[in-house]
Amino acid sequence: MFACLVTADFDGAGWDFHRVGSAVGCCLRRLRRGHYVVTRVCSRPEHSFVAAIAGAATTDLPVETTGMRKRVEDLRILVRSFVGALPRDAVFSHRSALIVHGLPVPFLERSDVRAEAVSPHYPSRQTDLVIRLRSLDTEAVTSVGGIPVTSLPQTLIDVARDCPLDFAVAAADAAVHQGLIALEDLRVYSRAHPVRTGRRRIDAMLANIDGRRETVAESICAVRFVEYSIPGFEPQFVVRDQHGRFLARSDFGNEAAKVLAEFDGAGKYYLDGQDPHRAFEQERRREYALRNEGYMVFRIRWRDLFRADVFLKIREAVRRRGVTGD
């Protein structure tokens, strides 16, 4: 669940502030006051205590990433550091709860890299931890691996209330797709737990959930279709040739306009140990076959999901081809 080891107990090992400081930037990274992340196995003799921790069979070191993936990994580590340190009656919630439940954090701004919790008695706002004041009944709280956390349906409802729609839909899609919760069960839970604020945001999330979507990117893309009033796209769209033979499965397809939208993820041509050049050639031939069947194919990259350009082009293509049949 947590891909690192966090420790603050250096006093017992005879470390003073000077020795800790010498390891920071080498094999330690300061996480928050009194807490440090072991980042790698260090060969320097004066850092042997850290090396012993890093090299242990039970230790998973942090994943070396950049950008948004790094922010998510940093949040995962930060949440780990607060396990056992939350105030009484507080439980992890929102993005932190998604991590505890094993669900993706769809995207993350730098300002969002902080642990989140809810409590009926102890609201707090710190640099690394925010605790919202929320009432909690027995259905709203659970324990995952001994970690106190909002239940899965409560987590998704909280995310819908306090996060953007695309974020909330992507998290809920993942939960439904993985079979962790049924959409109807989430609706029933929502009706049984009315809220004073955020009802429209919750209803918007519920109206846009579709467990057929397989990735966060697909979920965000589907929300963009709604936001830009682009109709008619179905997920996991199967394309067959004129003889009815299977040709391809596309992330999204509009049958009436014969327009396809596919997400180009990082590492697309390196999956399953494939030779990237061969995989690229197969993809090129596949796209030619789709175009020969009269389909227009739009390739969407991660950064395109947060820009209007490609979706305006898709909308215009659907409008023109849906009317003229070109």
Written description of the protein model:
The protein is built from eleven helices and 13 strands. The model is unreliable at 1-9 and 266-274 (pLDDT under 50). The strands form four sheets. Strands 4-5-7-6 form a four-stranded mixed β-sheet. Strands 10-11-12-13 form a four-stranded mixed β-sheet. It has a three-stranded antiparallel β-sheet with strand order 1-3-2. The protein folds into three domains: 6-54, no CATH class; 67-211, no CATH class; 217-324, Endonuclease, Chain A (3-Layer(aba) Sandwich). With 326 residues, it is an alpha+beta fold. Strand 10 (234-240) and strand 11 form a beta hairpin.
Distance between the termini: 50 Å
- Order of strands, main sheet, comes to 4-5-7-6
Helix content: 25-40%
Q: What is the number of independent domains?
A: 3
Low-pLDDT parts are: 1-9, 266-274
Strand content: 15-25%
Indicate the multimeric state: single chain
The value of Rg in angstroms is: 24 Å
Structural class: alpha+beta
Quantity of strands, as a count: 13
Instruction: Give the overall shape, derived from the CA principal axes.
Output: globular
Largest sheet: 4 strands, mixed
Q: What number is the mean pLDDT?
A: 86
DSSP summary: helix tally: 11
Please trace the helix and strand order, writing H or E for each element: EHEEHHEHEEEEEHHHHHEEEHEH
